[in-house]
Amino acid sequence: MKERTPYYCIMAAAGTSSRMGGTWKLMLPYGDGTIIEASLRAAAACCRTIIVVTGFRAEELESYIEGLSFDHAAVTTVRNDEYPKGMFSSIRRGVAKMRQIEGNNAGTPFFIALADMPAVTTAGYRCLCRESGRAEVIRPLFQGLPAHPVLCSYTVGETIMGEPDDSAMKRVLAQHTLLELPISNKGQVQDVDTPEAYRMAVEQERGTREQ
Predict the structure, then answer these.
(1) What share of the chain is helix, strand, coil (3-state, %, to 5)?
(2) Is the peptide bond before 109 cis (omega within 30 degrees of 0)?
(3) CA nearest to 81, candidates 89, 70, 69, 91
(4) CA-to-CA distance for 184 and 141, rounded, in angstroms?
């Protein structure tokens, strides 16, 4: 097994699945597990520490994550009670938790990832790691579309903490050097936001396994 990087991964998982017609998407079946499990396993194979930011149905999600095993990757949760303010508030909670864990050893790069993107692979993380240090933000692009995860230097975290909860990553990125890396995995731009998107994600995953 390839060695993990020392990087953190902040994974936003606080949303209400408002476009899913009453279904909570993170716990839907995907592959051999669930959507969020697939997202976590891709990150865990590359990162040493994953911080999952919960909000909607937080206790249920936190209990589920505690029951999963990720070899040598540390997976912890932090709750964002202000999640209705938007995703940026969750990213801020994740960065604050990362700073708390790091203590005096601050300076580690970190990924920002979304829990509802189960088709993101470990290779998607590793290709960004290979470019680490070339810019403060390294963002994948699929056919010109911004994709995930995004690799950030520690200084980006400081900027995030200086912004209010209702800010946005677009504002943060504008303050840092940016390297955009072309990728070929469409799954890095496909979040599961609707029942149709979920159906397509499941079909694509099955097709990949059958190849």
Answers:
(1) 40, 25, 35
(2) no
(3) 89
(4) 9
